[in-house]
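Q: I'm writing up a methods section and want to include an example of the input and output format. Could you take the sequence below and give the corresponding predicted structure tokens, formatted cleanly so I can copy it straight into the document?
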Amino acid sequence: MLTIVFCSFHSEKHIIRQIRTLSKDFLIVVVDNSRNAHFKNFIKSKYKNIKVILPKKNLGLAGAYNLGLKYSLTKFVMLCPADIIINKKTIKRLLKVGEKIKNFSVLGMAYKDSSRYQNFGVLYKKNKTNLKNVLEVDWIDNSYIVNKKKIGKKLFDENYFLYFETWDFCRQLQGVYACQNIKYVEMGSKSVDLRYSFQIQLSRAWHYNWSKFYYLKKFNGYFYAFRTSLKYILKYFFELLLIILNLKKKNFYVTFAELSGLLNSMFLRKSFYRPFERPKSFF
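A: Here is the clean output for your methods example:
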């Protein structure tokens, strides 16, 4: 009934943890964007019901989820990053709610710690559901069940590499729900091996700003996105100036990546930055 798709990028320890916890109860597909053939062979030798897919290139989150959906043959597919803590009871509870909401497209949960971020959001007024603690929402951010029959041919926009792709996906659909009383732990951008933390910090800084502008432009128009982003351009320029004066080299690269991602999106350039791949130019 359910396949769990994990997007992995140098996330081997997390993936093995997930497999040990969940593989006895669910089919698992791992889309490994780091294309680690040794890891794939190791999983294949140990577990028979786990499929590890090595794409030809790093697809990012949107492309990985599309590939995972393609290779999942079950009615329901749960899409997750590697760095979550969840157990089979929580997933089965979520499935039971899904059985009661026959027309759902996407069904998500709440973060156990929602003091900083919510895992779902409401932009427009929604109708209340008959089920207690279940809300109709506009988007789910992380770790959710997709009803393949209901979404039809709708897929993630692969212009995104990282960030905002799930918001975009949900806004294409009707029947997006969140269960407030079913919760899980999201570890907060810790899916990648800590050895690569600085490279990943640069990638996230670049892509968050590129994706945010692209998302705003797509749904609100270019001039709205431009007006909204002007204050951030000034902010990043002033931050760079202060960093240069204080000679903080590491901070300079992160802030420069933020500014570069935003400007490239404003100039309508594609999302080209990839971790561990040196770009020909930032602009």
